[in-house]
Structures are given as C-alpha cells and as structure tokens.
Design brief:
binds zinc ion, TIM Barrel, 8 strands, 6 helices, about 240 residues, alpha/beta, 8-stranded mixed sheet
Length: about 240
C-alpha cells in the first residue's frame, strides 16, 4: 500500500508544531508523495496563527517538480450544531477544510451530541473532511456517521497520529477499527492523514496501513490511492 497524498500536516504556524512549511514540503518530496497539504489550526486553537495567515497563500508555490502543494485549514467545531470557526472569505480562499473536534474548543458531549455535532459540520458545504473521528473522549455513533458521510459526500479521516501510543486521543485503535468497519458497510470514502506536527512524520502512514490491510479495506474507498480522487475533498 502506498499513499500518494497527505493533506493533514501542521507547521510552526499552528503554535504547537515544530517544522516550517518548507520543511514539510521537502519531507513530502523525500517520501515520494504526489500531493501534500498544510492544514494549520483555525483561530480558536490557543497559540495558532491569525486569519491573515490564510489570506496570503498566493506567495507560495503550488507545485514542486511533480508534487502538488495545497494550503487548507483545520477548523475547530465549537458547538453541538457543528459550527466551525472559519468564515467567508477564508472558506473560499483555502484549498480544503478539515473540521475536527478539539478539547480546547468543544466540551466532551454524549454520543448523541457528538454525532449530531459531526452531522452538522458535514452539512456545511465547505467541509469535505472530518478530522480524527476516532477519540473515545468524543464517542460517536459510527453507523450514523458513516451513512451520513456517504450521503453528504464527505471523507472521514483515518488519522495516523491517533494510532501513536503517545497520542492524547483515547482508544484510537479501537475507535478506528469500528469506524473503518462501518465505512466498509456504508461505502464511505476515507482519507488518510498523518496529522504530523514534525516534518519527519509527513507521509508516514505505517500504522494506518497495518489496520487497513488487516481489515482488507477496499482500496477504491481510499482517497490517497489515486490523485484523481482529490477532487472529492478539495474546495470547488
Ligand atoms: Zn485535529
Ligand atoms: Zn491536526
């Protein structure tokens, strides 16, 4: 298995990551990726960059050799309706939007509240990726989530960092297994993201590959396997 794409990476602009934009890009090249994206945290994450950061992507290269480069944003969902802390015109300026639940921005809810939260976020036409729906601190109804993602044409993320033993998320492997099984049942598209906060992690999906192979997850449901599938998650 070989992922061509990693759209979930952070740089020093996020405030708690340790590499630069260029270090991430060069690391992606070394790993042989064909598309890389930086997805800094939106404004409600303590210590992250301000709105202006997302207005100036025009100065950055869009391609290096045969690798495409994208600039997105990881939005914080801040209420149980699924509202995100990104508004126009940033919504239309960035290449893609990942929406995620994060402890500093959204209180832990019940399974019903968390599921409603993500269903609400997916109804936002700009949200095409739900980040790390794999954290037992935010329990989810995976049957309902995956069916809704298929209906809304939103990709659910398989987050490699959630499988790391030091991850702050809880029971990542168990949640991911349940998530992926329901994705198979409901024909839901997934996208692998490393969620790297240091450049060496960019494009490293070793833990994700293991679980996908174990479950014999259908390759045609993985965005990362084919560059043409990027249109599923990029801003129109
Ligand atoms: Zn996140
Ligand atoms: Zn992230």
């Amino acid at each position: 298995m070989k992922s061509l794409i990693d759209l979930h990476t952070h740089t020093i602009a996020s405030g708690h990551a340790y590499s630069t934009w260029n270090e991430n890009v060069q690391a992606a090249r070394k790993k042989g990726l064909k598309a890389v994206g930086m997805s800094e945290h939106a404004k409600m994450m303590p210590g992250t960059c301000g709105d202006l950061y997302f207005y100036n992507f025009k100065v950055l290269p869009k391609q290096i050799e045969d690798m495409q480069i994208y600039n997105g944003i990881e939005a914080n969902i801040y209420d149980y309706k699924g509202s995100i802390d990104v508004e126009e015109p940033i919504l239309t300026k960035v290449d893609y939007i990942i929406a995620s639940m994060h402890i500093p921005c959204l209180p832990k809810g019940t399974i019903r509240q968390n599921t409603e939260t993500l269903l609400g976020a997916m109804r936002n036409p700009y949200v095409k990726i739900i980040g790390h729906p794999d954290d037992a601190r935010y329990p989810l109804d995976y049957e309902e989530l995956t069916a809704a993602a298929t209906a809304e044409k939103v990709a659910l993320e398989l987050n490699n960092s959630s499988l790391h033993p030091l991850s702050a998320r809880v029971d990542g492997a168990k949640c991911i297994r349940e998530l992926l099984e329901k994705c198979i049942d409901n024909h839901t598209m997934i996208i692998m993201g490393t969620d790297s906060h240091y450049c060496e992690q960019v494009g490293d999906f070793a833990e994700s590959y293991k679980i996908l192979e174990e479950l014999q997850f259908p390759q045609e449901q993985i965005i990362n396997m084919d560059l043409s599938r990027l249109s599923y998650v990029l801003n129109k």
